[in-house]
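Researcher: Checking consistency across runs. Here is D-alanine--D-alanine ligase again:
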Amino acid sequence: MNHLTPPDAKAFGKVGVLLGGRSAERDVSLMSGTGVLQALQSQGIDAHAFDTGLRSLAELADEKFDRVFIALHGRFGEDGSLQGALELLGIPYTGSGVMPSSVAMDKITTKILWLAAGLPTPNYAVLDAQSDLAQVAAGLGLPLIVKPPHEGSTIGITKVNAAGEFKAAYDIAAALDDSVLAEEFVTGREFTVAILGTGATARALPIVEIVAPQGNYDYQNKYFTDDVKYHCPAVLPDALSEEMRRIAVQAYRTLGCQGWGRVDVLLRERDQKPFLLEANTSPGMTTHSLVPMAARAEGMSYEELCVEILRTASLKMKG
């Protein structure tokens, strides 16, 4: 691992690591942020934790950070709202700007944009209290997936195997979100593609395959057990691997993502066709997280990854 020289570390100035927050993913964010904080400090960077769930924007302004690393997940951290505040405060930040953060957090808008760009994503329906669930089930087929479109970390997601389970699944998602997304269930292997860079410089890291117990890659298995197996680089034919990386980068660029992110992909078993699932503009950085795993497969340590992401901190709105 390459340690930063003191002048290089000093060039970052005073750095805030924004963590915690107010979303349903607060606990995961605390783990991500603590890891990032320790990594940056180990490189001699003057980094400080700042919990946006406990402290105000006025306090954030008072800290006089030269730049911040966003280690927040979910609403009020990953959805564009904080990014807008940082633009107003003039504090350069990591990751995507206001619009791509907001769009990527909304799985419905993400799908609309991907489909308009000719990118493959599972068929879906948007549900509300008046929706005919039987008709939706007939249209999408069973099993299907029901999820709140503005949550992450598989929170509120239910697999519906029989029509009688649909209403309960809808209620779980509706308790977390104003709208509900029903999605065709794609049977096959699950992958994720980490991406670094912006625009033409965006590049995919080695693909990670996720093999969860009974295919259940839920919140508990993601962060709190060692039952999930990961293969990185994923074992795939070269042409398929290249195609998966290509559409993931195109999906990232289509949303206007910047700095770093992650795109989740399903590979349909029956014809080996990849389908885009969602984009994450502030992915996990815990010991179980996938972006650090992909970076490690390319020879980049966790500390080097954190510094590389921090280098890209910027204000996105020109004015």
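Researcher: Does this match what you'd expect to see?
Model: One thing to look at in this run: The chain has a mean pLDDT of 93.
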